[in-house]
Amino acid sequence: MNAQHLLAARREKDDFFKKHPQSPLTPEQRALFDGLRYYDPNPALDLRLKVTPFAEQTPVKIQTSSGDIRTYTRYGELRFEVEGQPVRLTLYETPHGYFLPFVDTNADGETYGAGRYLDPQELGDGRFHVDFNQAYNPYCVYGSGWSCPITPAENRLSVAIRAGEKMPQGAWVAKG
Predict the structure, then answer these.
(1) Closest Cα to residue 47, out of 114, 128, 158, 119?
(2) H or E stretch including 97?
(3) Are 30 and 17 in contact (CB under 8 A)?
């Protein structure tokens, strides 16, 4: 996604969070909401990647922040580099599309400690559009009433992904 479209999508998301009745924020949070925080657009992390499907695409159970269990299918492996460092992530399949949870080295600082999510788009020919500029926080970062999948250990990275949403800050952020 080019920078102009990305910035427009971010403004739309802020508007949704501030005004929409289905916002993940409480009415009290919405009244104080002054926008999400993002890294600047990073074209180097807007990727088209070949997936290596797993020989056995097995269902796995992933615990959520509320203690529930959700089932995903381990679909395949994505390999790429970030600032010269090799990276490997497992791509999961759901009945609604593909899911890529990850935790980077900025977690518990610049980014949410439990990780961020992406919904890669299948391009055909075994390739996916994986745009880390669109990485988003799970709703559980905004309040305790949400149940979010916890990023599996295999998707915990030893590199920083400086793209997408950062940790929210401000008077509107739920405490605890």
Answers:
(1) 128
(2) strand 97-102
(3) yes
pTM: 0.93
Q: Report the number of secondary-structure helices (H) and strands (E) in the chain.
A: 2, 8
Strands 97-102, 85-94: pairing kind: antiparallel
Residue-wise pLDDT for 51-95, tens only, equals 999 999 999 999 999 889 999 999 999 999 999 999 999 999 999
Residue 130 in any domain: the answer is yes
| Range of the structural domain that residue 150 is part of | 3-155
Q: Give the list of residues 6+ apart from residue 72 with CB closer than 8 angstroms, or none.
A: 59, 60, 62, 92, 93, 94, 99, 149
The answer to the question of residue 11 being in a domain is yes
The answer to whether residue 108 sits within a structural domain is: yes
Burial class (CB in 10 A: 0-12, 13-18, 19+), 67: exposed
pLDDT, residue 175, reads 67
User: pLDDT for 93-120, tens place per residue?
Assistant: 999 999 999 999 999 889 999 999 999 9
Domain total in the chain? 1
